[in-house]
Specification:
Number of helices: 9
Radius of gyration: 24 Å
Helix content: 25-40%
Number of strands: 10
Order of helices and strands: HEEHHEEHEEEEEEHHHHH
Length: about 280
């Protein structure tokens, strides 16, 4: 079965300087040809530019994406278009970043957290397109991938809305917190420090006011929720983590505020442990 419309779509996108490639059954790129098997051609799948070798076939995944109409209309590519099930493009090479929201929960989170931009509706969720490229990352949150450089995205149309510049709120999703130096434990209680449990702040109202302000900081976060939660935990622990005045009730309040913003219990526990590790608690 031939799909001439896929080739026409590809040529149209290439004319707009968007590098494209065909996807075969399963919506995956075509595999290496015999000459390029195991990168025998010298091309590497992780190369940062399209066209890793002189092979005329479309066999290097995202790196094969091109805007050259002569290549797109060449016999090997025409044969590939006949087998293709859809068209894909390389967003990073187009100066774009795609936040791939794979389900309703991810879409709801993005609407509450990320700046509005152009949206392309997908089978199960949405693609949010931003101007600007970055490194691609999978599973930055449940149901969310970032696709930009060294990645491909299925072409589903131009989408709707005005495309915004790539915000820090997306970049920070790819920033990993320091890994704990010891296994994460279910308990989140901060043990009493050298002060033997004597709180130097004297008045319980001081601690309560600090926890209330921390809850509010997390609740008010409109972007970079991961980083805000971690920074807030760090601030609370740096002030109250060594005197033994924090209780399970206090940490539960902070965890509840973070989970209300979409953070998982596991992320809250990891962020708490990482903050304690950084402070040497």
């Amino acid at each position: 079965m031939t799909h001439p419309h896929h080739q026409r779509t590809a040529l149209s996108l290439a004319a707009a300087r968007i590098p494209v490639l065909p996807l075969r059954r399963g919506k995956i790129p075509f595999g290496n040809c015999h000459a390029c098997t195991r990168s025998a051609c010298g091309g590497r799948p992780n190369m940062k530019s399209a066209g890793p070798c002189r092979c005329p076939s479309v066999c290097h995944g995202w790196a094969a994406a091109t805007t050259d109409p002569a290549v797109l209309a060449s016999p090997p590519w025409t044969a590939a278009w006949r087998q293709a099930v859809c068209v894909a493009y390389h967003p990073g090479a187009s100066g774009l970043t795609v936040v791939d929201l794979d389900d309703t929960a991810a879409v709801d989170w993005a609407r509450e957290t990320l700046p509005a931009t152009r949206v392309v509706v997908t089978t199960r969720g949405e693609h949010w397109l931003y101007r600007g490229a970055m490194t691609s990352h999978n599973a930055v949150r449940p149901g969310i991938d970032i696709k930009s450089t060294m990645a491909y995205v299925r072409w589903l149309g131009p989408g709707n809305g005005t495309m915004a510049a790539l915000p820090d709120a997306v970049r920070v999703l790819a920033v990993k917190e320091p890994a704990p130096v010891r296994p994460t434990l279910p308990a989140v209680t901060v043990p009493a420090g050298a002060g033997g449990g004597q709180c130097p702040h004297r008045k319980p109202a001081y601690l309560d006011r600090g926890i209330t302000m921390a809850e509010q900081r997390i609740t008010d976060a409109s972007a970079a929720v991961h980083a805000t939660v971690y920074g807030t935990f760090l601030a609370v622990l740096s002030t109250h983590g060594r005197c033994g005045c924090l209780t399970d009730a206090h940490t539960a309040r902070l965890f509840t505020a973070a989970q209300a913003k979409g953070e998982s219990l596991r992320h809250c526990t990891d962020a708490w442990t990482n903050a304690r590790t950084r402070l040497g608690l």
